[in-house]
Here is the input.
Amino acid sequence: NQSLTELQLIGSNLPYQGHLLHDGTTFCNPMWSSKDANVSCIQLGYPGVNVEQWNSSYFGNIGSLSGVRTLERRYNCSGTEGSLQLCSQAIGSEITCEKENAISVTCQSYIRLRGSDIPLKGRVEIFHQGTWGTVCTYNGESFATSAQVACWELGFNDAVQHGRWESPLVSGKIWLKDVKCWGDEKSLVFCPHNNWKYTGCGHYYDRYVK
Here is the structure.
């Protein structure tokens, strides 16, 4: 079997959803399950699959992409494997199938909002090395563009409010400090920032967006 190390998602404006692609090949599979989808998301570095959209089909017509073929690959994943390579695979499964049946998934994003009862508002948390942690910034004004990128990544149009989170955590990881996005990044983790797990900042300066 070919290595699936370079698994990608294409066809969506959001980095964590789209058609699965490897080496110019998309997947189709009538037996594709949420467990298979979860493993594909883990392999891509995300926390897992969005269980409500694990086999979505609204990312455009894969047939419009030149040079892309679609093969049937049947996996039988338990859902916890680190990659599709580690799942059992049916013998002789690589047969050509219709491109309109190409598999697409929506993974859980690298970021999430937590700690608020108000819809679409919360403390910004980043997923890194298998753990969620906060984003800390002393200068709130410098976080304005980063707040916009965070909202785009979550699928929202704009950041209407951002600031210091009013209920600081007592413990927990702080993954990023002084994130300064340019505004064209697809994810907060791609923005310039201090080293991961920077210790020179406290939860008092954790950031929220709305």
Observations:
- The longest strand covers residues 122-128.
- The mean pLDDT is 81.
